[in-house]
C-alpha cells in the first residue's frame, strides 16, 4: 500500500501537481475499508519527511506555491470546459464520428494558460481518414488552423478500441478521459483497456454524456458517402495524409517518427512533441532519486530494466 501511494505521488510530481487525499486514494485503487489504514501510512510518510502535506494536499516537492498553481489551473479548466463542450457538439455532428472524449490536461481538470483542448475521437470502421480529413478542413477554414480549442490528435475506429502501448503515461490518459459524446462507447473503450487497472486499480471516469442525438444532417451526409466507394477514398486519404505528415516532419529519423506518430487505417496518433517519452523518463528519474534519498525501491522489474538502458 505504501508503494502504491508513493508511486502515484511521484508520477504526479512530474507535473508539479499536488493531490488531495481522496484523489490519492482513488488513483491508488484503495477501497473505502482500507482508507483508514492508508491515512495512517500517509501520516507516517509525512512525519518521516518523505511526503509533504499542506492545506489538505499531498506532494513530493516542498514548494507550497504549487497548491495555488493547482487551484488556479483547476479553475481555468472549469472555465474552458464550456468551450470543450461546445466543440464536442460540433465534432459529434461530423460524418462517421462515433465517440468524442476529452483527453490531455483538461481531462485532469487542470489547464495552464497556453494549453490546448485535446480530443480523443472514435470513428466508424474504415472511415477514420474521411472523418479526420473533414475535421481538419473545418479547423483550417473556420478556426484558422488554431489548436487552442480544437486539438484533434488521436483517432481510433470503433473496432480497435484497445490501445497497443501500455505504460503509466498511456494508462493515465485512458483512465482520465471524459466522455462528451457516446457514454456507452466510452465504457467499451475502458473495458477494451482493462490493462490500465494494473496502474489504476480502482479509478475510472465515466461521466454524463453531454452531446445528445445525432442530427439528420449527419445521417444524410453519411448516406451520401455511401453512394461513392468510401472505403477506397478512405485508403487514399490515409496515404496522402501519411505522405504529408512524413514530409512535414522529415527532420525526424525513422525511430523518432514511429514514436511520435501511428498512421494506420484504424488509428492516428499525432504527437510530434513526443511528450510521453519525456514524462516517462522524468517519472523513472523520480523513482530512482527517491530510492537514493529514502532507501525505498519502488521500481518493478520492467522499470529497473528500462532504467539501465
Annotation keywords:
three-stranded antiparallel sheet; 13 helices; 2 domains; disordered C terminus; 309 residues; six-stranded mixed sheet; Arc Repressor Mutant, subunit A; alpha+beta; elongated
Question: What is the topology?
Answer:
Layout: H1 2-13, E1 19-20, H2 21-28, H3 35-47, E2 52-54, E3 57-59, H4 65-92, E4 97-103, H5 104-107, E5 118-123, H6 128-142, E6 151-157, H7 168-175, E7 178-181, H8 183-192, H9 216-225, H10 230-248, H11 254-260, E8 261-264, E9 267-270, H12 275-294, H13 301-307
Parallel strand pairs: 5-6
Antiparallel strand pairs: 1-3, 2-3, 4-5, 4-7, 6-9, 8-9
Helix pairs in contact: 1-2, 6-10
Structure commentary:
The chain is α+β, with helices and mostly antiparallel strands and 309 residues long. It folds into 2 domains: 93 residues, Arc Repressor Mutant, subunit A; 196 residues, no CATH class. Helices cover 52% and strands 13% of the residues. The chain has 13 helices and 9 strands. The strands form 2 sheets. Strands 7-4-5-6-9-8 form a 6-stranded mixed beta sheet, sandwiched between helices. A 3-stranded antiparallel beta sheet has the order 1-3-2. Strand 2 and strand 3 form a beta hairpin. The two termini are 28 Å apart.
Amino acid at each position: 500500500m505504501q508503494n502504491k501511494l508513493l508511486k502515484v505521488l511521484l508520477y504526479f510530481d512530474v507535473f508539479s501537481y499536488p493531490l488531495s487525499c481522496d484523489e490519492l486514494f482513488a488513483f491508488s485503487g484503495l477501497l473505502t475499508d482500507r482508507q483508514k489504514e492508508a491515512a495512517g501510512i500517509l501520516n507516517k510518510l509525512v512525519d518521516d519527511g518523505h511526503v509533504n502535506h499542506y492545506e489538505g494536499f499531498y506532494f513530493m516537492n516542498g514548494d507550497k506555491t504549487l497548491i495555488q498553481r493547482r487551484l488556479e489551473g483547476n479553475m481555468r479548466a472549469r472555465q474552458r470546459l464550456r468551450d470543450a463542450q461546445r466543440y464536442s457538439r460540433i465534432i459529434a455532428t461530423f460524418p462517421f464520428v462515433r465517440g468524442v472524449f476529452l483527453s490531455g490536461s483538461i481531462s485532469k481538470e487542470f489547464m495552464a494558460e497556453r494549453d490546448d483542448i485535446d480530443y480523443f475521437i472514435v470513428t466508424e470502421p474504415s472511415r477514420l481518414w474521411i472523418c479526420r480529413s473533414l475535421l481538419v478542413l473545418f479547423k483550417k477554414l473556420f478556426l484558422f488552423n488554431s489548436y487552442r480549442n480544437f486539438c484533434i490528435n488521436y483517432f481510433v475506429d470503433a473496432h480497435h478500441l484497445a490501445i497497443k502501448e501500455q505504460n503509466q503515461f498511456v494508462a493515465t490518459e485512458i483512465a482520465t478521459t471524459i466522455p462528451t459524446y457516446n457514454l456507452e462507447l466510452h465504457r467499451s473503450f475502458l473495458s477494451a483497456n482493462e490493462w490500465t487497472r494494473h496502474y489504476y486499480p480502482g479509478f475510472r471516469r465515466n461521466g454524463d454524456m453531454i452531446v445528445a442525438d445525432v442530427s439528420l444532417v449527419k445521417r444524410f451526409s453519411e448516406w451520401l458517402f455511401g453512394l461513392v466507394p468510401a472505403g477506397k477514398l478512405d485508403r487514399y486519404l490515409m496515404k496522402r495524409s501519411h505522405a504529408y505528415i512524413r514530409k512535414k516532419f522529415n527532420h525526424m529519423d525513422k525511430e523518432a517518427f514511429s514514436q511520435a506518430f501511428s498512421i494506420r487505417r484504424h488509428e492516428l496518433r499525432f504527437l510530434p512533441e513526443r511528450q510521453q517519452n519525456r514524462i516517462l523518463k522524468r517519472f523513472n528519474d523520480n523513482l530512482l532519486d527517491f530510492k537514493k534519498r529514502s532507501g525505498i525501491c519502488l521500481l518493478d522489474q520492467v522499470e529497473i530494466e528500462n532504467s539501465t538502458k
